[in-house]
Specification:
This protein is mostly helical and about 140 residues long. It has seven helices and three strands, in the order αααβααββαα. Helix 3 packs across helix 5 and helix 3 packs across helix 6. The radius of gyration is 19 Å and the shape is globular.
């Protein structure tokens, strides 16, 4: 297979995965509120909107909507910083922590299912290639800065 055809097939496959939300539906990748709550939990359960924007790459409008929704669901609390009254603190609740644990368990369960279907050899090769791809992309990003 030529390099051009290989590149085309890789892009088509990635495009199909994105179009069908395969990774999101199977909870391999988290988005929106799920991503926010897991990132907040991994950050120690407490953060600021600006730090969460940095961690998640959400726009201010998207972040605001997510915070409002998660607060309404009882997953987070929002309050003013005692030291800097201009700063808002976001804190995960017990309910939010439990939801984060469920999300992470689901990711692990789905990953184990895929590993079983791929087999150990293919799983290790996939991991090796993903790490190599990450290194290539990270180096390209550094060069462009």
């Amino acid at each position: 297979m030529s390099t051009a055809l290989l590149a085309k097939e890789i892009l088509e496959t990635l495009g199909n995965m994105e179009k069908r939300n395969v990774l999101t539906k199977r909870k391999f990748l988290l988005r929106g509120e799920d991503l926010f709550i897991v990132v907040l939990d991994e950050a120690g359960g407490i953060s600021t909107p600006s730090k969460m924007a940095e961690y998640t790459d959400f726009t201010p409008a998207r972040l605001s909507a997510i915070i409002k929704s998660l607060e309404g669901k009882g997953y987070i609390l929002r309050h003013q910083d005692e030291i800097d009254k201009r700063c808002t603190i976001i804190e995960i609740t017990e309910k939010g922590d439990a939801h984060s644990v469920q999300l992470k368990e689901g990711i692990i369960r789905n990953s184990l299912e895929i590993i079983e279907k791929l087999g150990e050899k293919d799983s290790l090769e996939f991991l090796r290639l993903m790490k190599k791809l990450f290194d290539i992309m990270e180096n390209e990003e550094r060069r462009s800065e």
